[in-house]
Design a protein that fits this description.
488 residues; single chain; two-stranded antiparallel sheet; 71% helix; Cytochrome C Oxidase, Chain A; mainly alpha
Length: 488
Amino acid sequence: MHPGNALSYDYTVAKCFMFATILFGIIGMAIGTLIAFQMAYPNLNYLAGEYATFSRLRPLHTSGVIFGFMLSGIWATWYYIGQRVLKVSMAESKFLMIIGKLHFWLYMFTMIFAIISLFLGITTSKEYAELEWPLDILVVIVWVLWGMSIFGLIGIRREKTLYISLWYYIATFLGIAMLYLFNNMEVPTYFVAGIGKWYHSVSMYAGTNDALVQWWYGHNAVAFVFTVGIIAQIYYFLPKESGQPIFSYKLSLFAFWGLMFVYLWAGGHHLIYSTVPDWMQTMGSVFSIVLILPSWGSAINIMLTMKGEWSQLRESPLIKFMILASTFYMFSTLEGPILSIKSVNALAHFTDWIPGHVHDGTLGWVGFMTMAALYHMTPRLFKRELYSKSLMEIQFWIQTIGVVLYFSSMWIAGITQGMMWRATDKYGNLIYSFIDTVVAIVPYYWIRAIGGLLYLIGFFIFTYNIYKTIACGRVLDKEPKSASPMAV
């Protein structure tokens, strides 16, 4: 096999994870849109009894988007990028092909049972870690299989230099492995009298310790899924699409090591004004503010990659998606440190500003970048020309408007909530009751729901475009030409 022959790579597993990305994107975003409308119109909670309430659907939304849509996207791009930058095909190793396919099918099996269990209300009640211990074990096995794929492919590579994207994939694997194992340590209660549910468990931690470990994990789930795994993608796909080399390889290394050392210790900002020691709260705030440096290091490096080539934004919808994704990454990684400042946190914590912050990063950064990656990959996976550039443009603007409506409405709602909660009369009594604040922000809930609906419509347009590309796109004799000086 000639290492430069792109058509000789085996994309079987990449295709499987690509379809999973789209499937879980539809499921996760559709549920998210529904619960957004439930916040605006509470009667929607009674659509199907307990199974349609916000409290039952919300974990399905978060898990479906984070561990379904986002992780599948990371794995789809890994099985594509890994082969190309290492210049080796998975088909060269029967062992790696078996590992890759087992990785996919065991992951799908785990996700199906995760959805069923959460839908039934079986949960540990820990944010982003709701699955009970039998499924936790399956998650660990799935993760180990991915690690075997990563290091197995690296072990048989032809290209000796590891491109920066691979550094980020390795960090995603190692970071989540460490975090997940420590946070999900639990004791099954099957043998305890009175507990008749074999799947039930209790955390090995309690009280403040449990909160500290949980948000050490919770914030770094954001770090290594929302951030590190997505940076891996843009460092590959932007140069390939634009034909421009990464502006500074040294800056990419600085940003990488900065993220590794700083991000891990920023989770304490979730626990400001709580019972955790004050020095831990301060440490979380300080590390969060320092985190601006490596985060913006990556974002500025991405932006400067387009130096002298900004005209491409007019010509290529894919470049639009990636540059706007990077812009949202810059906004989100500035907003997060601002929210971690104690005086700002006193106003913003527990308000709707927080989901606004989460979603401008998730929808704008992760969502846009994941869809851009799949748009780039599809003609090369299926050897067909993209169906419609016009649909890509329409999708871009619909989803951009949706994201802006979402986060701006939640910023306003959050600040309104915070100010109303703190308002007192001359005697020091609270002026507003809690229900007063709820009534005041209902219009912003409607705006958020409409913004989410627009984003979901855009995702359906994306799905249709991908489907039509695969089904009836013009057959390509060779993959689309890239002017990039990067490795194949």
